[in-house]
Amino acid sequence: MMEEDCQVKSNVLLEETFYITSKKNTYYKVKLCDNGLSLHKESNGAKKIEKICISDIIGCRCMRLKKRNAGNCICRPSLSKNNMKDVETTNINEQLNTWDEYDTSTYLYIYSYISKKKRVKTAPRRERLTLTLRFRTFDKYEDNLREASKWRLVIKCLINNISIPKNIINSNYDSLNDLLNASTNDHKKLLVLLNPKSGPGRGRELFQQRIHPILSEAEKPYDVHITKYPNYAREFIKTRDIYQWNGIICVGGDGILFEVVNGIFERQDWENVLKKLPLGVIPCGSGNGLAKSIAYAKDEPYDTNPMLISALSVVKCQITPIDIIRVETINQILYSFLSIGWGIIADIDIESERLRAIGGQRFFVWSVARLLSLRRYKGVVSYLPCDNTHIIIDNKNNNYDKTIRDDAIITHSKSYDDEIDKYCDSGIRESKSCHNVHDDQVPNDIDDLYLDGDEINGENIALETGFEGRRRLDSFYSATSRKSAYFSTGSTSSFRSMENSDNSQKGNDNNNENRIMYGPPTTLPALTAQVPSNWTKIEGEFISVHASYQSHIGQDCLIAPQAKLADGVIWLIIIKAGVKRSVILQFLLALSNGSHVNIPGVDMIPVKAFRIEPSESTSGHITVDGEEVDYGPIQAEVFPSLANVMSP
Per the record, what is one GO cellular component (predicted)? Predict the structure, then answer.
């Protein structure tokens, strides 16, 4: 469960021992250490250590069984009728009146997503693993809740990389309510801007089914605002008090993030916004270039489940700097995070919009059409080359080396020492990734949550140790219950849209020259002036000129293998006219693995700034981050590490 190079430190924060009554001489020593959970299993002299990195854990929650429904026999309760409910912030007096007084247990659910490789030839993937620690050490519920809450708070401190309160390890914590209400999270919510028409048009549905459960498990509250028209997100960011949130999540394609970035630079406080509010991206669109670039930079198995990896980036919220490019055209100033295109790639991107209903396959279909009707573009390309920068050919593919041993799997267990376990006779089921359960419906109220009898799995264990002053009972089991893990966190999140007080056609205004853009001052000459003498100038006909500053411009398009998120380099790809169609076909096919840099006739040049000046006799498309801009002269320069993105 933990990579072999991820060793749990010897600094043990919390520790407990659990016995399994169904197996003689078998017990677990569960330790919570600085960077992970460690489970030491001993059975008849044989030892086995199973570990989970703290970096794979996204959240944890305390639960308790509610009172049994009327009519159930106390000695033989119907397990499928018992409800589980969050007890983290509820007053103790209310708990004693609401929940089952016959069960003094507290259940600590720990949610993790581990890297796993099932077969030698298959790519690794992250799979969801839910551990359920059942605290029934004491004969009083309040004492069990205190113990579980200490584990929970320490885990949350470790997840958020903050200092653990000194008195939390002390078993005689002064106030149980203070412990229950202790929080390590910022009380601000995340701002989610969702494009319901991105990609094949299922953005809202995908967010509710695939992203909400992960945000809920990680206790990340959010506000969702659904975009209503083009440039809605841009106007929202420009006009609203966005400091009420602690991050901006864009759900859709690269287009909605483009709106958000440029909306920020229409604010006078743009610098403060970029500093305080990191940007997150969850792919529901066709291209999804930045989401793939972030995962590629962090060596995450993006292709097996893009939405899961991107959602984990949001909940882990590791801040990573990213380059921003200032773009100037005759009519406007823009800010870009992905790429600028002129030629065949830009044509494919824009003209394939009519096939948006088929998703990402539209790029392949239109590539064939554009190749059969190949165009040439006449103009001048000038650039400022990077100093002491060399192209390093790297045929790196997306086969990740991160593996997990087959024997490093925690055995899911249960205890038959309690009535609630007596009817849990189903076999062990493999824990499932979130993307495999997205057809489940999210309940309207956490009170509707229930734990079915066939959802507690594993070995039978019970605690048989004790210490002075307290009688110990059974205390631990693990479960892979889909419903109990999926629905076990309440949510203070909300779906809403900004009040539509003004005309809904506002975002369709294309009069961009009236926009006032802020941002860092440019170092380039005016677009109408001559380029400096230290620039390189190429004049003639071109098939494609494409500037990329991230590794990918699409999920399956590794256009700049050497690009980093914040390296201060623009990778300029130039293909001059005169090459055969077979070379262009080879180039388009090679974009999937980055080997196009080896093709003769394809020049890849690292630059700091560039200018494209199309001839007046030439027509076509120019794109910035996949969005079409006015056809004509355009220049750009890089500003390293200007913004921050959320990453795994």
Answer: cytoplasm
User: In degrees, to the nearest 5, what angle opens at C-alpha 588 toward C-alphas 584 and 120?
Assistant: 140
3-state secondary structure at position 365: helix
Residues 6+ apart with CB under 8 A from 602: 573, 574, 575, 583, 587, 596
Q: Which of 488, 476, 478, 485 minimizes the C-alpha distance to 134? A: 476
The helix or strand, by DSSP H or E, that contains position 319, with its residue range, turns out to be strand 318-329
pLDDT tier, 123 (very low <50, low <70, confident <90, very high otherwise): confident
478, 132 Cβ separation under 8 angstroms: yes
Q: How confident is the model at residue 469 (pLDDT cuts 50, 70, 90)?
A: very low
Residue 599 to residue 146: CA distance in whole angstroms: 64
The pTM of the full predicted model, rounded to 2 decimals, is: 0.77
Question: Cα 29–34–39 angle (5° rounding)?
Answer: 20
**Contact in structure between 415 and 21 (CB atoms under 8 Å):** yes
Token representation of residue 361 = 């396959």
- Give the single-character DSSP code of 164: P
CATH numbers and ranges of domains, the chain: 12-180+411-477 (no CATH), 189-400+504-647 (2.60.200.40)
Phi, psi of 423 (to 5 degrees): -110, 20
At residue 5, the 3 state secondary structure works out as coil
Three-state DSSP class for residue 348: helix
Closest CA to 204 of 252, 161, 249: 252
Amino acid 648: pLDDT? 85
d(CA 134, CA 462): 10
Burial class (CB in 10 A: 0-12, 13-18, 19+), 20: buried
Cβ-proximal residues to 437 (8 Å cutoff; 6+ apart), any chain: 213, 482, 486
Residue 274 has pLDDT above 90, yes or no: yes
Sign, CA dihedral 410-414-417-420, equals positive
The mean pLDDT value of the chain amounts to 75
Band the pLDDT of 375: cuts 50, 70, 90. confident
439 CB-near residues (< 8 Å, 6+ apart): 209
**Catalytic-labelled residue, pool 56, 100, 103, 254:** 254
Segment 206-218 shows an average pLDDT of 92
Asked if residue 610 has pLDDT above 90, the reply is yes
| Location of structure tokens 């929650």 | 61
Q: Return d(Cα 512, Cα 265) in angstroms, integer.
A: 13
Tell me the percentage of the chain whose pLDDT exceeds 90.
39
Q: List the single range of 367-371, 570-574, 592-596 with lowest mean pLDDT.
A: 367-371
Query: Is the model's pLDDT at 116 over the cut of 90?
Result: no
Please state the rounded mean pLDDT for residues 269-282: 95
- Cα 439 off chain centre by: 20
The CA distance from 327 to 33, in Å, is 48
Specify whether 440 is catalytic.
no
Residue ranges with strand state E in 34-140: 36-43, 46-53, 57-65, 84-86, 106-116, 125-135
Contact 382, 610 (CB under 8 A): yes
pLDDT tens, 226-265?
A: 999 999 999 999 999 999 999 999 999 888 999 999 999 9
Q: Is 444 exposed, middle or buried (0-12, 13-18, 19+ CB in 10 A)?
A: exposed
